[in-house]
Amino acid sequence: MARKNLHIIGLSGGKDSTATLLLALDRMPRGQIRPVFVDTGNEHAETYRYLDFLESHLDLPIARIKPDFAQQIAEKRRFIARDRRTGRDKHGVKLRWSNRRKREALAHLHPTGNPFLDLCLLKGMFPSNRSRFCTEYLKKDVFVSYVDDLVQSGQRVVVWQGIRRAESDKRKHARKIERVGSGFYYFRPLVDWTEADVFRFLDAKGIPPNPLYRSLGRVSCAPCIYSTKPDLRVLFASDPNLLPRLRDWEARVSACSKTGRAAFFAGKQLAGARLGEVHPLVFWDRHQIDAIQHWASKPTRFNPDDWDGFDGGGGKACSSEWGLCE
Fold first, then answer.
1. 138/143 Cα distance (integer angstroms)
2. Residue 141 and residue 61 share a domain
3. Alpha carbon of 34 to those of 59, 142, 157, 306, 315: distances in Å?
4. Among 120, 154, 156, 158, which residue carries the largest CB count within 10 Å?
């Protein structure tokens, strides 16, 4: 008897992955469809509510998975405790953790259960446009591991990816069907669609898109390292807990950093220059979350130069070939 394909849909809560799920329901037996959401721990509350809506309205369970960094954190704690290195790195910074930094890091470096925060504690920094490790560790790796376990068990798998060629240069040559290995395929049914096509399809199916499109224009982490000034205004205004939460995260991650400093938006250039081009105290004072919130509240136009690396056209903005985030 031929094995049945299991159709995995990487579901982010965004328009493209939602349209991909609806296409799968139109074309495939319901029992062979499995939407999978990877939870970073830094998602907007509206996204969680939207996933609950889809699960209830479509009467289809959504597999919700998240990464676990407990083992890596335990290994990092051992490394810090035993660090006896000498010398300095290429920037002139001492390689060895000072005794003070060791004490603070070991006091704070413990799993919290929030994947995003745990990853930043582990790294001793927040992701930035120059070190964008969030998508890989929080989305891609855990999803790939999930799918690989199914393939290794002998299950035939088709991964449906909600990506479109018009989104960016990186995706303009995406193939509609791609064989990965024996019994393992990628299927990208939206590659020729436009953004308007996606919204029209959702409307025809009677499924409203995630409400975040009305206020932020996209579905991503909340906040994302690429959030624009208007995005941040909306996020700070709509969530009174955001500022104290990020303030707490910065304090924890700073304690786990060898330098004792960490800022959620360190990739920004509010200090007028990159770190190393102005005094560190000036840079970090300008980039702490309270300063960012103050900047975002100013009624000025968005200046692209304020955000090094942001590309409104999708070139550098957060994305994933797996359709796990937008």
1. 9
2. yes
3. 12, 16, 10, 41, 30
4. 120
Residues 139, 281, single domain; the answer is no
More confidently predicted of 169 and 111: 111
Pairing mode, strands 177-181 and 157-160:
unpaired
Residue pair 181/172 in contact by the 8 Å Cβ criterion: no
- In the beta sheet, which residues pair with residue 60? none
Rounded CA separation 23/136 (Å): 27
Residues for the chain: how many in total? 326
Tokens for 232? 């941040």
Stated pTM of the model: 0.88
Has residue 314 been placed in a domain? no
Task: Judge if 63 and 154 occupy the same domain.
Answer: yes
Region of poorest pLDDT, from 84-98, 117-131, 238-252: 84-98
Q: Is the pLDDT of residue 319 over 60?
A: no
User: Looking at this protein, which amino acid is placed at residue 75?
Assistant: E
3-state secondary structure of 159: strand
CA 109, 110, 116, 119 dihedral sign is: positive
Does pLDDT of 1 surpass 80? Answer: no
Does residue 165 or residue 72 have the better pLDDT? 72
Q: Which residues contact 198 (CB under 8 A, 6 or more apart)?
A: 15, 16, 19, 164, 190
Task: Give 323's pLDDT tier (boundaries 50, 70, 90).
Answer: low
Q: Are residues 227 and 300 in the same domain?
A: yes
